[in-house]
From TrEMBL:
Keywords recorded for this protein, A-Z: Cell inner membrane, Cell membrane, Membrane, Transmembrane, Transmembrane helix, Transport
Transmembrane segments: 9-30, 134-155, 167-193, 223-246, 281-308, 328-354
Species in which this protein is naturally found: Neomesorhizobium albiziae
Single Gene Ontology BP annotation: transmembrane transport
Protein name as catalogued: Microcin C transport system permease protein
CDD domains named among the record's database cross-references: TM_PBP2
NCBIfam families, A to Z: PRK15133.1
Amino acid sequence: MGAYILRRILLMIPTLFGIMAVSFAVIQFAPGGPVEQVIAKLQNPGGGGDALSGGGGDAGGGGNFDAGGESSRYRGAQGLDPEFIAKLEKQFGFDKPPLERFFGMLWNYVRFDFGESFFRKISVLDLILEKMPVSISIGLWITLLSYLISIPLGIRKAVSDGSTFDVWTSGVVIVGYAIPGFLFAIMLMVLFAGGSFYDWFPLRGLVSENFSDLPWYEKIVDYFWHLTLPLAAMVLSAFATTTLLTKNSFLDEIRKQYVVTARAKGLSERRVLYGHVFRNAMLIVIAGFPGAFISAFFTGSLLIENIFSLDGLGLLGYKSILDRDYPVVFATLYIFSLMGLFVTLISDLIYTWIDPRIDFERRDV
């Protein structure tokens, strides 16, 4: 097992390098980089923001292009002092060749030195740590709720396979999976958040403005009051896959010979189901828990955080892409990719821990 873990860790290096290299190359061709963002703000002061409020340092991107002007390669820079443009390029790290910027960025990231945000006076790592509790909170509750719904529902569907209950719940599950989470979120906002019908739930934020002044029990109520609509929007599609996976796992186990033998010995159906089938059927479901959490944590909350104005990593990433804040964009990509690779490894190790019959050492990686 030690050799398998070592091989997997070594394979993470080229995988992570490829992810960062492709993303960096794409960014080089993306118009409207941070220099253009500053120039646009200078041309339109009403747009807000300080032209030189960023942190500087080596940038992980480009985003510059030839706009056809003789004095500058940046659109809208005609008439600006070339020394000022050069100062901007140096501040954002664009005075260096792309390869030098890329390998310099990787060297810093290996040491977990992510620099500072271009447009916020804060280090990227501190910014990510500041937003992470919101995303962890959403991801954790989504994963727990989806499992609490999916496992009992999947077991019931497996036991009553082909029945009316199984058919209509499958229809509900499929429809729930087909509806995009953001569309369901908008529908919930219209219905229950002051739209055209009811005003029962808040529209913005994870807590109320007076949260710090509330007693502890009211803080709990306020927290879940704000989470109700975002969780409902995400759980609808999150539990569908796990439900069908649980059902199919139980069906596969129920048809095996040891279940027939247990029933022949006179064991009750409940004893057979939860004493024998449950442990084996839950292997794939339990082992997928870390991956399900990471999926809800990083990807599922992106649109939901934007719709409900939850100040988490999803909203941070979205704003960073719009602002071309490349240190934040590349740092979050690096951290998320690294965590995703390790979570995949952890999921495999959980398989072997739950079922000792699984041995990855005998398989080619």
